[in-house]
Design a protein that fits this description.
Elements lengths: L1 H15 L22 H15 L9 H21 L14 H6 L25
Length: 128
């Protein structure tokens, strides 16, 4: 799923361009960036995902999944190298952002266990 999310990010970048700081690090409002762009950093993230596949323990029963994972990252890396990436896929909890979670009367905005005895919900400037 992560590979597919990165593929969609590259597809969007192919249509509308990569995120503003991808090819020019100064666009991220950093006065003196360490590098002129973020291309190699972003490709390094994809490479880390590709490398992580090799750390999956082999299993005769599920080895086909490892093979599929291995083959799924190569096109993502190549496509991203050509087009860039538009947005980092989100790793947000399923409850969503705080205003949405509060409006749905969720007890927490994350996946961590709720340990508070009393909880106060305060939405600043939101009309729910």
């Amino acid at each position: 799923m992560t590979g597919n999310a990165w593929e969609q990010s590259a597809e969007i970048a192919a249509s509308v361009g990569a995120f503003p700081g991808y090819r020019d690090a100064r666009c991220a409002h950093v006065p003196k960036p360490r590098q002129k762009d973020n291309v190699e950093s972003m490709l390094g993230v994809i490479q880390s995902h590709r490398d992580a596949v090799e750390k999956i323990q082999p299993s005769q029963e599920f080895n086909y999944l490892k093979e599929e994972a291995r083959h799924s990252w190569d096109p993502r890396w190549k496509h991203g190298r050509k087009a860039g990436y538009r947005k980092r896929p989100s790793h947000r909890a399923r409850t969503g952002p705080a205003p949405f979670a509060f409006s749905m009367d969720c007890d927490t905005t994350g996946i961590e266990p709720d340990i508070a005895l009393v909880k106060y919900k305060l939405l600043a400037g939101a009309a729910c």
